[in-house]
Protein: DUF4331 domain-containing protein
Amino acid sequence: MKKSKMILGLSLVAVSGLILVAADHIDAPATASGGANDITDVYAFQGQDTNNLVFAVNTQGLLSPNATGAAKFDENTMIEINIDNNGDNVEDLVIQAIKRDDKMYFFGPVAPGTPGTSSTIKTAAASGSVTISSYGAAALTAENNGMKFFAGPRDDPFFFDLGQFKAILAGTATGFKNPGTDTFAGTNVLSVVVEVPKAMLGTSGTVNVWAETKKKQ
Structure:
């Protein structure tokens, strides 16, 4: 059994049928560990199949096209999606993603061994795996038991006008421009995406979702 320690994370509240996102892209110096541990965005939204929910966790933000080809998921870092389905802000289910060689392996959704900052890999709840897509190649996906999986580089989908934001903070601008300038245009992230039947997530119409990267110790 393996345990891991939380490095950093982001949170959001997801309501079935809506897409919501939390993002930071660059962590504060006191908490930043960089690289594979840095979560940029967390998304949760209803799938094209309305019986499913999709969870996406993006890491390693601000990758230039030249750097993306060399960027890799870390085998010593687990990406964990936490799902609270009863409104107490404690995870009732987790979905874990762990890289081994050229594949990403998924476990859950399953009840966590111990809620909180340390996790045990739920090896008995293996749900599937997918070959990690390469930069510039066609996206590879996999399906198993009604779930769908993806892992690999993607264009950063988050839009933010950082220059205008700094101008607002400095008092030289009063608001954002329309249209604004996409600061993250042309940069990439490493994404883990899993689509899950809602029936696997409990009977609540609302779930709270947050993600963590947890480093092996």
About this structure: The helical segments are 65-68, 162-170.
